[in-house]
Amino acid sequence: LSLYLDLIERGSPERSERYWAVLRKQTERLNQLIEDILSLSRLQMGKVDATLTPVDLNELVKEMVDVRREDFIATGLSLEFEGDETLPPVSAQPELLSQVVHNLLSNAFNYTDDGVVRVRVFRDAARESACFTIRDSGAGIEPEDLPHIFERFYRGEKSRSRDFGGSGLGLSIARGIVQAHGGRILLESSPGEGTRFTIRLPRA
Cα(169)–Cα(121) distance, rounded to whole angstroms? Predict the structure, then answer.
């Protein structure tokens, strides 16, 4: 950051806008990293259980899908939602659960060049759980990367070949939040065949 500040001060005026754009982008990345680290710290300190309330998972997921829909459309991607209005509520902290949906949608957005991302909310009566899946038609994950995908700061081969400005903490945070709610996050992926995340949460 200090390098670009120096360039703005000493460089030619016609290039200053370019330098300001880089500074804004780097500042956004630093802010996201700080927010992600704070999220991990809150999870480690167990600051979840005391604020759990009944949450309509169908409504929460749909709202997050609607928030991100324009981003997907702008890049030619389709974002589909299939809900279940009969779903029983789950005990959750809405802000944290929204962060899980946001992180997984961002992951699908970043690794899907074309095609569709499908989001489905459903009830698993056998396990007495409320669930949602986010499935993309993107690049998929290499088998050697799968065991590490939820590790902090881990970036697989495809991640290293692209620069999305992420902190490398999004999936780790998502798993931590789901586990703090007594749930599970499952991953299925194959190279060239896309990726599917399934989140299972206990009913309230």
Answer: 25
> Could you give the 3-state DSSP secondary structure of residue 140?
coil
| Assessment of whether the complete model's pTM goes beyond 0.85 | no
pLDDT at 38: 62
Task: Give the span between the Cα atoms of 116 and 201, in whole angstroms.
Answer: 25
Structure tokens at 129: 């759980």
Distance (Å, rounded) from C-alpha 11 to C-alpha 6? 8
Let me know: does 156 contact 141? Beta carbons within 8 Å: yes
Percent of the chain as helix, strand, coil, to the nearest 5:
50, 20, 30
Cα–Cα distance, 161 to 116 (Å, whole number): 22
Q: Distance (Å, rounded) from C-alpha 165 to C-alpha 139?
A: 18
Q: What is the pLDDT of residue 132?
A: 96
Closest CA to 1 of 39, 28, 36: 28
Q: For 144-176, what is each residue's pLDDT tens digit? A: 999 999 887 776 655 544 555 555 788 988 998
Tell the residue number behind the tokens 């949450």, with chain if given.
Answer: 55
Which pLDDT value is given to residue 85?
86
Say which residues have a Cβ less than 8 Å from residue 107's Cβ, sequence separation at least 6. 170, 171, 195, 197
For residue 115, the model assigns a pLDDT of 92
DSSP conformation letters of 1-45: -HHHHHHHHHS-GGGHHHHHHHHHHHHHHHHHHHHHHHHHHHHHT
